[in-house]
Amino acid sequence: MRARDGVRLLRAELAPYQRSLCAVAGLALLLSAPTALSGVLIARALDDGFFVRRAETGLWWLALLVQIQLAGAVLTRALFGPLARIVEPLRDRLVTTITAAGLDRALAGESAQPGAAVRQATGETESVRRLVATVLRNVHTTVSVAIGALAGLAAVVPVAALMLLPGLLAAVAVYRRLVKYAWKWQRKAILIEERLADDATRVFTARRDIVAFAAEPTATRQIREGVEAARHAAVRYARVGVLRSLTVSLGVDLGLLALLVLAPVLISQGSLSSGDLVAAVYYVTFGLAPAVKFLVHGGAGWLVDLIGTMTRLSEVAVGPGNRESPRQAGGSRNISLRRVSYTYSATADPVLDDVSLDIPYGQHIAVVGPSGAGKSTLASLLCGLRAPTAGSIRGGRSVALVPQEAYVFAGTVRENLAYLAPDTPDSDLLRTARLFGLDELELDRELPPNGAGLSAGERQLITLARTHLSPAPVVILDEATCHLDPAAEQRAELAFARRGGTLVVIAHRISSAWRAGRVLLVDAGQVVDGTHSSLLAGNSRYRELAMSWEAEPFDKGRTA
Ligand SMILES: Nc1ncnc2c1ncn2[C@@H]1O[C@H](COP(=O)(O)OP(=O)(O)OP(=O)(O)O)[C@@H](O)[C@H]1O
């Protein structure tokens, strides 16, 4: 995530408006003339008019000054045409790019919440429109006024220009450092806010499950940590404001003070007239000071905001033409772990230690291992419930994890089955219910909270059928069939294997490993990859495990 990407996107989006941008720049140069001339006219009005008691001459110069200021106001009005031609189409172009990229990701199954991402991004696009308009308008005014003031100072009072130069150069040096600092914290603040918005959306949509699994404290802690992180980033960003005030003092006030202190000497030596001194003060207070203030106060903030927002959009707006599409890449539903470690606390040994593996879309995998080896930890990493403490995991979005504790909520059987796919017709609900042996349950039957009155096995079957109906491309069954007899477990696993997509079964019987095309043995922080027969032949730990599990007397129907 680099500022360069944001600047590149901004340049690309502004490229079609070069003519309008040239018009804005040309107007800035033209508008510097009234500022440059104003100081000259003030000096003349004073030195040739009022200070030598020739009021008429003084008034004549002042009348010229008024005319020049009026001409400047007319020129300023001309700015709004080219500005409107830039900012309005810019917003429309950005919204189109971002929505197209969001749809592309959603179609590729890469984004779990494409709507939220696009909503957030279109909000940021509106900020870009406002920021570009503000920055262009203010940069335009500041640049024209600063050029005019510097040109006027150098021409009329070169000695004052020399006194102001060191302070201005110091201000620019401090300003550069401030921009880097502000940039860092502004980026952090944006990312933290986005993560917070995501977390809040996820918690809100999953509130039923959160209550059912008594996970309110975890959800509350997660949101509270996000809010605290956002507050911290905002405070650090705000501190830059204090440093900016210092820069203004350095940049302008010190130079002006030096000029005023030395003015009596310069005037008595004849190297400065009283009118020139007033003109110099005019150039500084109406030209340079506002320019420096804009740069370090509003300008720096707006520029940092604009580049920060564009950098964020450059990540969201990467469209099919600019990146390898997930479909070209073999589908983002592939999951890959690279050097992944997971530790529950700083003092505990890692449950998983430097594990790398690939799970291509469509595989049927059994995960086996002794109790406490880390199978459930692996499952929660695969579905993104936990983040690795080291290494990285790619893919694995839209994963349905079915835990051991079945969750049946108060409502009809229909509502329970269709919870993850609300538009499913009754005929499909019934067909899927039959796959799991739930023929007896009527769709209209009202179930009490937690499925009271149903057996533990029936509750698991309802949860399994609900997941089977969901659109999730990857399903992880974490001992989700532990209350089923071996035959019902086989029927459920086969139903999932035939459903398509990836199936990962955290096994509690050896039969799950027989049925799977691939077996992952989790042991002592490592994952050994193989098949039931290869591990049986070559891994003593797996042999021990297989022997300790009871062999079930039923058909070993395998799936590839
Ligand atoms: N929330 C937690 N905090 C601290 N340690 C944990 C936590 N959850 C699991 N552990 C520890 O991590 C290790 C792996 O646990 P995990 O549940 O992943 O193993 P498992 O192979 O699924 O075990 P089982 O087969 O008994 O379900 C265990 O030593 C466990 O005690």
UniProtKB/TrEMBL annotation:
<dbReference type="InterPro" id="IPR003439">
    <property type="entry name" value="ABC_transporter-like_ATP-bd"/>
</dbReference>
<dbReference type="InterPro" id="IPR027417">
    <property type="entry name" value="P-loop_NTPase"/>
</dbReference>
<feature type="transmembrane region" description="Helical">
    <location>
        <begin position="246"/>
        <end position="267"/>
    </location>
</feature>
<feature type="domain" description="ABC transporter">
    <location>
        <begin position="337"/>
        <end position="549"/>
    </location>
</feature>
<feature type="transmembrane region" description="Helical">
    <location>
        <begin position="135"/>
        <end position="153"/>
    </location>
</feature>
<dbReference type="GO" id="GO:0140359">
    <property type="term" value="F:ABC-type transporter activity"/>
</dbReference>
<feature type="transmembrane region" description="Helical">
    <location>
        <begin position="279"/>
        <end position="304"/>
    </location>
</feature>
<dbReference type="GO" id="GO:0034040">
    <property type="term" value="F:ATPase-coupled lipid transmembrane transporter activity"/>
</dbReference>
<feature type="transmembrane region" description="Helical">
    <location>
        <begin position="58"/>
        <end position="80"/>
    </location>
</feature>
<keyword id="KW-0812">Transmembrane</keyword>
<dbReference type="GO" id="GO:0016887">
    <property type="term" value="F:ATP hydrolysis activity"/>
</dbReference>
<protein>
    <submittedName>
        <fullName>ABC transporter ATP-binding protein</fullName>
    </submittedName>
</protein>
<keyword id="KW-1133">Transmembrane helix</keyword>
<keyword id="KW-0547">Nucleotide-binding</keyword>
<dbReference type="InterPro" id="IPR003593">
    <property type="entry name" value="AAA+_ATPase"/>
</dbReference>
<feature type="transmembrane region" description="Helical">
    <location>
        <begin position="21"/>
        <end position="46"/>
    </location>
</feature>
<dbReference type="InterPro" id="IPR036640">
    <property type="entry name" value="ABC1_TM_sf"/>
</dbReference>
<dbReference type="Pfam" id="PF00005">
    <property type="entry name" value="ABC_tran"/>
</dbReference>
<keyword id="KW-0472">Membrane</keyword>
<dbReference type="InterPro" id="IPR039421">
    <property type="entry name" value="Type_1_exporter"/>
</dbReference>
<keyword id="KW-0067">ATP-binding</keyword>
<dbReference type="GO" id="GO:0005524">
    <property type="term" value="F:ATP binding"/>
</dbReference>
<feature type="domain" description="ABC transmembrane type-1">
    <location>
        <begin position="23"/>
        <end position="290"/>
    </location>
</feature>
<dbReference type="InterPro" id="IPR011527">
    <property type="entry name" value="ABC1_TM_dom"/>
</dbReference>
<feature type="transmembrane region" description="Helical">
    <location>
        <begin position="159"/>
        <end position="178"/>
    </location>
</feature>
<dbReference type="GO" id="GO:0005886">
    <property type="term" value="C:plasma membrane"/>
</dbReference>
